[in-house]
Write a structure and sequence with these properties.
The protein is 20% helix and 39% strand. It is an alpha+beta fold. The chain folds into two domains: 7-129 and 269-281, Diaminopimelate Epimerase, Chain A, domain 1 (Roll), CATH 3.10.310; 132-260, Diaminopimelate Epimerase, Chain A, domain 1. The chain has an 18-stranded mixed beta sheet that branches. The longest helix is centred in the first third of the chain and has 13 residues, at 84-96. The relative contact order is 0.19.
Amino acid sequence: MSLKIKALKIYQVDAFTNKAFHGNPAGVCILEESIEDEVMLAIASEMNLSETAFLSPEKNNFVKNSNVFSLRWFTPEVEVSMCGHATLAASAVLFEEFHVQSDEIIYVTKSGKLTARKEENKIVLDFPLDTPVFDGFPINKKLLEAVGISEYKNIFLGENTKKLVIHLKNHDEVSKLNPNFELMKQLDVSGIKGLAVTAGIEGDYDFISRYFNPWDGINEDPVTGSVHTLLASYWCEILGKNHLSAYQASKRGGELMLRLKKDKRLEIIGDFIITLKGEIYI
């Protein structure tokens, strides 16, 4: 008895970089018909990247004049409600490989409507801006110890993303931080969906950051678009400017341009490189 095998188009894209093997690699899987959630999770686990995006057209076929797509994101362990770098990667595939003719791509997601467009050789994402909450949540001292933090300038939680951000004294502390991920995973962090550290920096960037989420199977994410919806809100208030340049100081590193809009939205702008394309069989 022969098994019916499906071949799905799949890509790997390095996001928020113009150099191959830098930035944050994301998988992009094209679904011309629906598949079960557990199969998507299995594919994401097989890709073993921080996130794999799953794209399907709302009108059930990939044609050049389609510009509305369902978009979901999976880590190797769980589905997540928002992912910036995998959205940028998905947009790169649609514009470069499927030659979407529309100036704007609309995504239907669990975080509402998101959009993307090309601006010269970059992708511009339109995401909801998050709001920092500075009190009303417990500060887990054991978590701070596991991350390696004894002192900080500020700490806050994203109202919508529920990401915890810790503002350290200087950028050297951000770069040198060496968290104990195994200890972090043992702690009860209910109400928190990932942890970022940040600091201001002089030079080409306004601030730097790093992002850790071992609870979702990502010890350190190379470049994290979603946490910048919170970081942008925080740093724009501190610096008194609406256009920011950010660097995520992971081993691979990545650059993001951030532009605040008047309607509590944020444009996240980045480069991309498509490094791999082929088929995955299920």
